[in-house]
Please model this.
Amino acid sequence: MALLNAEIRKDVKAALADVKQPVVFKVFTQEIECQYCKETRELVQEVSALSDNVSVEVYDLVKDQAVAESLGIDKVPAIAVIGKKDYGIRMFGIPSGYEFGSLIESIKLVSDGESGLAAETKELVAKLTKPVNIQVFITPT
Amino acid sequence: MLAYQLAMESDLIQGHMVEVIEFPHLGNKYEVMGVPRTVIDETIHIEGAVPEPMLMAEFEKLLQ
Model:
């Protein structure tokens, strides 16, 4: 049974129509003890079917440990949204409700390769000298 | 999402979205009660939706 209804598929397809540069969803799951792993994998697969430039690679947290470590994935389900390079964008947990919108937005961000931030913000960010990890905690809406 | 835009802008920045119901130990660790809650580098916590200027004010603290 599809996770996305026809209405949502139509909207997503339209939203992704301008995506030109390829984007890969690297989705991490595991076989046991993961409540939404299967649904997360299915969800990103359904989304990728709506654009020729969005694809999915499925990895197992345990069996593909080296890949998981290289992308800093320590819990599942997880999605790394990758474009021509890894911009450090991750989603942990199934992207439902509002987060689904963020997932679609992340495709466009990664494909464009441009942050869309204000000039002052870009100047500030350019001054960073060490790594910064920003975590945004949400609940499904 | 702002955290994602910041991750795009710098190789030094990672932007992670974490759904706390699936990871309750993280909800506890960061004492997440209201969402969204933004945590920068384990130390700076911001409740609620964060507009760009406010997040940047927090970022300035990191630069000091």
